[in-house]
Amino acid sequence: MPLIRPFAGLRPVPERVEDVVAPPYDVLNSAEARERVLGKPMSFLHISKAEIDLPEGTDPYNPAVYARAAENLQKLINDGILIREDQPRYYVYRLKMGDIVQTGLVAAASVKHYDTNRIRKHEFTRPAKENDRVAQIEALNAQTGPVLLAYKSDDEIDSLLNQVAEGEPLYDLIADDGIGHIFWVVEDQEITDKLSVGFDAMEGIYIADGHHRSASASRVAKTAGGTADDMSHYFLSVIFPHKQMKIFDYNRVVTDLNGLSKDKFISKVKENFSCKKESASVKPEKPNEFGMYIDGEWYRLNINPELVSDDPVARLDVSLLANNLLDPVLNIIDPRTDSRIDFVGGIRGLQGLEKRVDSGEMAVAFSMYATSMDDLMLVADANEVMPPKSTWFEPKLADGLVSHVLD
């Protein structure tokens, strides 16, 4: 069974792509999505977040939401806004955000190889979010949100993708957030075959973002029946070379000091970290270093070297902070469920941390050094799971450029 395969994508006609393309469903809440679609009746948010077309306050998990999503998708098809490819294709997708340029392959990835961990995971999933994506896929008979995957950079594969990207793109647009999205159809059968063979020779590929989408695709495949060769046993994915992918820091803010005074709290921090007050904000410059913002002041923390292990999970900075400060000092035992901690993507900058603390909403903030793709792959190869909120990928994939229909 191939690791990936071409598929007959459902995509916008070129002259309507800017009307259709939308941010990923999970980066906007319902209120933000309602605002985004004003004057945009073709926006893919009408499919990915269809509660915006129902009365305010509608539960996003209400069956009526999935039914409306299916109606909205069918309307775009009936109106000729979305068209189905006449044969299975690969696509090349380039993202641009400032100096960051990523060129990857859009393909259907095998559920069988996901189930056997050849498509490797590094996060737990939550049942409610899985159930939501299952209901969405079943209502639409399609996967509309791509899973972000990574492959270990390969010169031959990279060259093939760049060769396609030398041609005229099908789409070339800049979204509302300034991110460039460039999209090519792979029409050369020789390149298609070489891509299939090249990926099938890989030991594994890695989920970067989209664990719930891939897990839900696996569940849908099990209920669909048929064989592992059926298109219902594949899921929509975009696969980038790992060296091009950018992980931003995923920072932490905490509501209180667990009953400690500031001086007592800092004294306890110093049991496991060196702690130096700084005159400017602290963005960590290397692994095992952290910034801490409290009471209008920044500190640079470095963990005591003897506390760093070789274990692929325990050595992560997010683990070191959790195991040596958040848990023993602040009594945050499970960051997944503790309401006293929140997480701030590094794309918001250190000012985002200062604002949360200065407002009095939070008592202390921690800036992190970003997890590396090599660390992510080591964890996945070990069949281990990262702590929650270990990675924040930018730029984000767009919804609506292409969907994978299951028949």
Descriptive account of the structure:
Strand 9 and strand 10 form a beta hairpin. With 407 residues, the chain is α+β, with helices and mostly antiparallel strands. It folds into two domains: 4-247 and 394-405, no CATH class; 250-369, Conserved hypothetical protein from pyrococcus furiosus pfu- 392566-001, domain 2 (2-Layer Sandwich). 30% of the residues lie in helices and 24% in strands. The strands form five sheets. Strands 1, 4, 5, 6, 8, 9, 10, 11 and 12 form a nine-stranded mixed beta sheet that branches. The chain has a six-stranded antiparallel beta sheet with strand order 15-17-16-19-14-18, sandwiched between helices. The protein has a two-stranded antiparallel ribbon with strand order 2-3.
Mean pLDDT: 96
Any idea what the shape is? globular
Termini gap: 18 Å
Helix run count: 13
β-strand amount: 15-25%
SS content category: alpha+beta
Give the beta-strand count.
21
Specify the helix fraction band. Answer: 25-40%
The unreliable regions are none
| Largest sheet data | 9 strands, mixed
Number of domains: 2
Chart the SSEs and their pairings.
Elements: E1 4-5, E2 10-12, H1 17-20, H2 30-36, H3 45-48, H4 63-78, E3 82-84, E4 90-97, E5 100-110, H5 111-115, E6 119-120, H6 127-140, E7 142-143, E8 147-151, H7 155-164, E9 171-174, E10 180-186, H8 189-200, E11 205-209, H9 211-224, E12 234-241, E13 247-248, E14 250-254, H10 262-269, E15 273-278, E16 289-294, E17 297-303, H11 317-326, E18 341-345, H12 349-358, E19 364-367, H13 373-381, E20 392-393, E21 404-405
Parallel strand pairs: 6-11, 8-12
Antiparallel strand pairs: 1-5, 2-3, 4-5, 4-10, 5-12, 7-21, 8-11, 9-10, 13-20, 14-18, 14-19, 15-17, 16-17, 16-19
Helix pairs in contact: 4-6, 6-9, 7-8
